[in-house]
Amino acid sequence: MAFEGLSEKLQGVFKGLKNQGTITEADVNNAMREIKLALLEADVNFKVVKEFVSSVREKALGEEILRSVTPGQQIVKIVNDELAALMGGANSKLTYSPRGFSIYMIVGLQGTGKTTTCGKLAAYLKKEGKKPMLCACDVYRPAAIDQLEVVGKQIDVPVYTDRTTNVPEDIAKAAARHAELKGFDVLIVDTAGRLQIDEELMEELVRIRNGIKPHEILLVLDALTGQDAVNAAEGFNDRLGVDGIIMTKLDGDSRGGAALSAKSVTGKPIKFIGVGEKFDALEPFHPERMASRILGMGDVVSLVEKAQEAIDEEKAAKLEERLRKNQFTLEDFLDQIGQIRKMGGVGSMLDLMPGFSAKQRQDMDIEKAEKEFSHMEAIILSMTPQERDNPKILNSSRRKRISAGCGLPVSEINSLIRKYEDTKKMMKQFTGGKFRKKGAFRGLF
Prior knowledge:
Elements: H1 4-18, H2 25-41, H3 46-60, H4 63-66, H5 71-86, E1 102-107, H6 114-127, E2 132-136, H7 144-155, E3 159-160, H8 168-181, E4 186-190, H9 199-212, E5 216-222, H10 227-240, E6 244-248, H11 257-266, E7 270-274, E8 282-284, H12 287-294, H13 300-310, H14 313-324, H15 330-342, H16 345-352, H17 358-363, H18 366-381, H19 385-389, H20 396-406, H21 410-427, H22 434-438
Parallel strand pairs: 1-4, 1-5, 2-3, 2-4, 5-6, 6-7
Antiparallel strand pairs: 7-8
């Protein structure tokens, strides 16, 4: 979970403040000391930490805060607002060229995940109604062009390549002409990286930039490298002038120092974050939502957006009708598991729900829950259509056959049927318009 360590420490600080009826200047100073340590342990840039704590302390010591009926909650709000501001304030959207053809140049050090990110960005733009093309300009790394072609096939996006030349700027210029001529409205240029910033790399990137004049230059940073990522961002921005940052592997970074420091140090916004390996695991970055998640207040807006993407309104209407007629089947139950999968699984949903601390999340044993879902899917898929439609016919011999088919004990089949019956009862409460608003999947928890 992103920011897990920082989140746990900050929530511990605020728990003490919230429990106090009145707060003194000494209480605020103690809290600021703990916050400072938590941020430094999260590998946030020292200068950024110093400025952040100073700003929060100044606002928290205001007379209206200390004399407030709920001073602890007021201080939490201040920290929340300052965290959001630290990461950029509001969502910085990807912009498009007014002439209708946009070029995005993707840059970064070797190993940050540039090529995969190019694919993720192309998949995201396809979902937004754009027609993207990829361009392979990494002529140095072995099989880099092949890798981008494989990525293109997986997301069904064409890739422009030219193996007859090793001059990246010529390839990029030819790709831009070709893409616009063929009616594509977006070209994503994958460039070469190095293990570290050097003059040769920067000169090459400057030549590509001058040759194609990209609408935006997007820098890919690896969140797991912490302050090294921020230092790299400074180097690229000073020489090349980047327009935005894509932070990869944020789902695997429990500290979050790079994400918290990048905007302050470079002045450039984080536009997207990578939250998984799949090509749909690229999300627009919302600083205010991330701040709420760090402080344990959840991210209800993102949860609702994920639900809207996952839930088919037409399917939901039909399911509601079947619920009214008491016709909810195991096929429907399987569909609800699929909706949770579409939303990123149980762990992803809990990250967005208010009130779930890192410890509570661990106590719930997310891996076990995901494993149970996989077992339930295997059991249902081992049934005949008739059995899925009418679980009442599942006698002992049928259950033994299903057990042999899915490789799971009969006790797990019995457990599934109980969960199905409980879910069926609970979901009947969401008919009459409430069903689609609140989410069909809720009964599975």
